[in-house]
């Protein structure tokens, strides 16, 4: 079971800023991935790759949630077609403020798919990225990098069995709105309801002090308790996984979430 261990390296790697991207040599070595719920191809973009929510989910099956993980071969093929390898440092950003949850899902999926370095551009969007000074020429990955194999990182997610068998000290957070969380027939037994809005996770990730304080106000000590995350289909929960990573906390997502749990009759 993944525990809530604080690691400075994780905290530094989770988020980045426009100011950091302006540093000399940074943009030349990074792939920019723009994410929207729905990609509008008529709007120009400076991104290396643009992804919509449909690119980040697989086909729903009789025993899966509404938004399962995508086919690994398909998502990695999309990445390599854009010149992104497992060793390419990637910066994910939301096209607009309303695309935070889709972009957080991309952050989760790319890490799960095997991209070694994925950071999230916090509080900046497509227009802000377009205004960044463009590098004279992007660095082309060398042969070793191109050959790097995408290996699934299972530590980023958990399945229904792991949720059902979680230890007593593990906190299972359901990130849905209160009316979706409902009564005991509408959520996983033992889950606590902590919607993203209650943590001010609507357009960006708050600063670490405010975020940790918000969790504590809702009875969760993020640096001391192991945390698993769920929602309806693994999208809203991805936002909290990203937010907790900014605190240096690994909080895996149960991607199937309630929509899968309900089908499994657990």
From TrEMBL:
PROSITE patterns: RHODANESE_3. Its EC number is 2.8.1.1. It catalyses: thiosulfate + hydrogen cyanide = thiocyanate + sulfite + 2 H(+). Keywords: Repeat. InterPro entries: Rhodanese-like_dom (IPR001763), Rhodanese-like_dom_sf (IPR036873), Thiosulfate_sulfurtransferase (IPR051126). It is an enzyme of class 2 (transferase). Residues 53-137, 166-263 form the Rhodanese domain. GO terms for molecular function: thiosulfate-cyanide sulfurtransferase activity. It holds the Pfam family Rhodanese. This is thiosulfate sulfurtransferase. It comes from Protaetiibacter larvae.
